[in-house]
Structure formats: C-alpha cells, structure tokens
Amino acid sequence: MEIKVLGTGCAKCKKLEEMVREVAGELGVDADIIKITDLNEILEYDIMMTPGLVVDGEIVCSGRLPKKDEIRNWLQGE
C-alpha cells in the first residue's frame, strides 16, 4: 500500500502524517508512507487545500484533519 501525505509542513500536515503512521502501525499495514511537501507535486493532485491524503493513488481527504476512525477505514479499504 502506498500512502501519501500532502502538505507544505504546517501543523495540520504534520499531525496527519503522525496519525497515519500511528493507525498504520496499529493495523499492522505494510505501507510506504510518503510525505510530499513540494507545492508543484501537491498541485498535481488537484486538491484545493492541504493537508491531503492519498491512498493507493486515490485522494481520500483534503483540507481537513480526518478522525482516526476515517483513516482506519481508508487503510482497511472500506
């Protein structure tokens, strides 16, 4: 599984990365978690606001911090 956290380095972006790593660890998910901070690369995902979360190429969230339960569902493919 490939997980990308999109954000320029703000507090919410850092928190999202922390939450994703925590949930992935709890679930025992084998995932490559990539933090993308380059604005041009973020813009390729066509999101209006950061933070953004991409799971296996699909944008699942942008512009807000999701709840841990939401992250859990996305990582389990629900």
From TrEMBL:
The keyword tRNA-binding is annotated on this UniProt entry: no
Record-linked InterPro entries: Thioredoxin-like_fold, Thioredoxin-like_sf, THIRX-like_proc
Keywords from the UniProt entry: Disulfide bond, Redox-active center
Cited Pfam families: Thioredoxin_3
Domain Thioredoxin-like fold: 1-76
Disulfides per UniProt: 10-13
UniProt keyword Lipoprotein present: no
SUPFAM superfamilies named in the record: Thioredoxin-like
Active-site residues annotated for this sequence: 10, 13
PANTHER family: THIOREDOXIN
Protein name: Thioredoxin-like fold domain-containing protein
UniProt organism field: Syntrophaceticus schinkii
